[in-house]
Structures are given as C-alpha cells and as structure tokens.
Amino acid sequence: MIIDKLHYISQQPEDGTHLTAIKAALDAGCKWVQLRIKDQSHNIILDYAIKVSELCFEYKAKLIVNDHPEIALKVGAYGLHLGLQDMPVAQAREIIGPQMIIGGTANTFKHIQQRIAEGVDYIGLGPFRFTQTKEKLSPVLGLSGYEDIMRKVQAAGINTPIIAIGGILPEDIEPIMQTGLYGVAVSGAITYAADAPQTVKSIYQSLNAKLLNQA
Prior knowledge:
The protein contains nine helices and eight strands. The protein is an alpha/beta fold. Helix content is 44%, strand content 16%. 41% of the residues are buried. Strand 6, helix 6 and strand 7 (162-165) form a beta-alpha-beta unit. Helix 1 runs parallel beside helix 2 (42-59) and helix 1 crosses helix 9. The protein has helices at residues 18-28, 42-59, 69-74, 89-96, 109-118, 142-155, 173-177, 188-191, 196-214, and strands spanning 6-9, 32-35, 62-66, 79-82, 101-106, 122-125, 162-165, 183-186.
C-alpha cells in the first residue's frame, strides 16, 4: 500500500472547475488527488470522478474519492476518504470491497483511536488553521495541537500514517513534519500558486527533508 506524503484536495477556483484545478495540480507534479465536491448531485460528482479518473491514469496519479463509496467503486479509484460525519467505515468497506484504501478524518486523539479501531489505512488530522474549503469546521488545532496529539500517538505506538490538513501553506510544512506527522494535504496553496510546479517541488522537498537529514 502506498500513501503519498502530499495529498492535493480539489476545490473549485474562481476561474475554473474542480477538473481544471486537478489538471493544473497534476501538471504541477501532484501524484495523489482527492476529489472533494460538496453540495452537488450524485450524477455531477460521478461525471467529475470519471474524468478525473482518466486524468489520474494518464498522469500515473492516485485518485481518492471523498464521501461517495459507490462512485469510488464505479470509477476504480485507489481510495475513499470519509469525514467524521460521513458514512461509517464498515458500511463503506462493504460497498467498496477489501482492496481499496480508506482514509478517515480526525480532530482529536480520541478520533484517531476510533479511526484505527474502524480499520482506516490513513488519517487526515485537522484543521491546522481556518479554511474556507470546509463549511462545518472542527476546532482548529494549530501547531501546538499537533504536538500534543502526536505525543499521545507516539506514546501509544500508533504507526498508521497521519496527514495534516486544513489551510496549510508551504512554510508550515517543516514545523508540522517535526511533530512526527507523515505528510500534509494541501488545496489553496497549490490551486492559487503563482508558480504551481515550483510550489509542489518545494513542498516535496520539505516533506522529504526529514528523511534526507536522517540518511
């Protein structure tokens, strides 16, 4: 199982669509895309998912579908991501089968324990700071929140990859990674980057700096 350290979360830019934003992120070098569309019909999200699946195949990238196991199964996605208020993990697993990975959102250490008990393959922990891409936002964690939760994660011997999410900027990544998190999920910092390829390259360098320092 491969979990990329950089997850691009789709959003609709002012001058485009989820599809144009994802195409630009793939052009910039992203290898893991989560299609996250809220408040749209099943058919519209399915139509997007089919097109994004074709793009991800072309770019050899992994597609994760947010919140819709039937759509993830239909387009042959690599994985499914579920928020805290979404369908229970066990119910989604019955729909998608045993092979597809499942990621789950968490806001507290208790949520992390819950997600692991549910059998998720990775956890999105956040939000790091306020973000406009999510309407029902859980309490903001900030760097001190991550430090506190990751101390408990390490003390509990938890090895499930945990990804920071929520309003993360490139300059946040190095201090976030020092807390022991596995990677980051980024949306606006790539969607609205003046030079998206350079931004993605810089983010990957920051994500891998810890490994290089340990070499």
